[in-house]
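Let us work through a complete example step by step.
Step 1: write down the sequence.
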Amino acid sequence: MGATLPIISKYYVTDNARLGTQIGYLYSINTLGAAAGCVLTGFLFISTFGVLQTALFASCANLLIGIGCIRIYQEEHPGEKTPFRLPRFEWPKLTWSPELKLWMGISFVCGLTALAYEVLWTRLLVFSIASTVYSFSLMLAVFLLGLCIGSLAVVPLMARAVSLRTVLIALQAGIGVYVLFTLFTMESLLSAPWNSYSLTNPVKTFLRYFKDSAALMGVPTLLFGMSFPVLIKLAAGGHEHVGRATGRIYSANTLGAILGSLVAGFVLLPWLGMEKSLVAIATINLLMVPLLFGTGDDAAPGWRKGVAGVTVAGVIALNAAMPGNLLDRFFMRDSAGQRDISKLLYFEEGVTATVAVFEDEYGILDPTAKRLITNGISMSASNVIATRYMKLFAHVPILLSDNPEDVMVICFGTGQTAGAAGIHPRVKRVDSVELSSSVIHAAAWFQNENHNAVNNPKINIVLQDGRNFLLTTRKRYDVITGEPPPPRTAFTVNLYTKDFYQAARDRLKPGGLMAQWIPLHSQSAREVDMHFKTFLSVFPHAIAWMSVANEILIIGSDQPIQIDFQKLKERMAEPSVAQAMRDIYIPDATTLLSNIWFLEEAMQRLSADQPMITDNRPRIEFYLDYSKVIGLAGQERLVFNRTPVEEVVRRISGMTYEDTKQLKRQYRVMDLYQRGVMYGNRGLLLEAIELSGGGGDLFRYHLQAGREQINRLLAQHRQEPGKLNVL
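Step 2: predict the structure and record it as tokens.
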């Protein structure tokens, strides 16, 4: 790919008069093709054909282009024998003139700053347009379109008798000034964050992605695009050397781009933070102004040096005068407007993620709950609902396992799953795999909820990608569970594919248990069925649990899952476990088992007509065809197709008549709870509380009422039930 543009330049540019314009046209067409490939791949090709098929299509396109080039050569040289071999390789001579070194150096700086900006801009944009495959595709497409338009815009300038050095000075100054300008106007440039998982209006959503990306990146990328053809024309001197000049300028630019992306992501961002990193890179662009002016010949040497020195001093002074809190309010925004910065407990811009912890009120039962925000996305919280289902990710498979000595937790999050695993006496070691060290640092703010997981000697924190850890570790586990991000988040699908489950199965001991999360609030009905189909294809023996509204936990194994009621009671009677279960309003074994929603047969029936999610066909990541998240009809389909309690009872051994009776009552309680939340029906929730004998805060959470209020509502409900139908 790197050799293509220099070769085409040498073939296409045939005279000095049109050298600059032809280079501009070539580069614009090249970057336009790159932008088109980005959009088509992100929005169409992978979702329609698959990853492998898209790569094969691109390979075939390259092959056809090569055949076409041979045909063109044969037409221009009829009768000549075409040599199908490369010329003898010779190391290029690095005898560069001072002038050429300058242009290559400027090209290096352009590449370095452009890719450094792109890394930082991407981290900024996720706070506005979220983190999905579509937002990332459009971010990159806008970046490339800016280069394309810029290389076209510079063509008229190069056709005139203007000083190209002066043009470069203006371009570098423009880049630096605009980047600094955005720091003061970021809140007005970029939209407030929002939930983009539900594409109710795809056109409006994607236009918003485009607008925000263009507002932040459009002007600088246009100026970068203008710089590249100018540098090639300056380096070439004449059309005879354009191929060599293009190769040199392009290689210097690419080398700078490699270094810029590495430095921005691994050095500047973690050390300086977003704002100071942008200021530092903009300073590099601004310092090119005195360098270019001081090495030119537009004025007397002494005057040039004086002006250059004053400019350097001005740039340094500007850098020092920049405020240090320009982006604080931008990072604090939420979809409703502005978060209260006084409620910010923790903030860190790490190598892999920008992480924040906020105090977040969830009503009268959670006045001091906390929320974990990663790259602008709410990943987890410590409210009643989140704490219950995240801890059950560990409790359920561990309690069902006969020998859960070794446990793996993929994605640490708030640490509530890993911490819950660590309190079980039968568990000897928990390997918690997390990609972001910043997330681990934030766990200190959740230590009451996660049982101080970071300092638990049984819990081993592994800083690595969870999928890669599965593929590289030789250890086998009794239980694999986790706190993964929502499936529609970009690059998360690899924790939900058949290939992932196969890798997990290979690391489980015989009869080991795998746990997976399906968030109904960010999936369509079809996607939920795909999750069932995919999971069951690897773990044919499975049980799905719905312990709270809109969250499903699937437990699976390669062997039948046997539930021994007496053993379950004994395991839950361990003091540390009993207290942990009471904390999430599960006081006994029947209450726990009442959260079972589907057995294998029900999930197979629901998912019979759906395809599977694979690495090659990551359907749930490319969710344009599924658009809206699950609605009322989809929720009703899941709630009303629940496995009958009689079938669940047959799966459980060791239950007495009273145990069975209690389970059936609690089973009905959860039916009422799920329907009450689904319909927003206060009467059904009150009925669930009454049938459960008072219930826990799980029910009161949805009513947002204290115990005295609940008692008054129950009395009113008995007298006039019709007045409480709507929550």
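Step 3: interpret the result. The first helix runs from residue 4 to 12.
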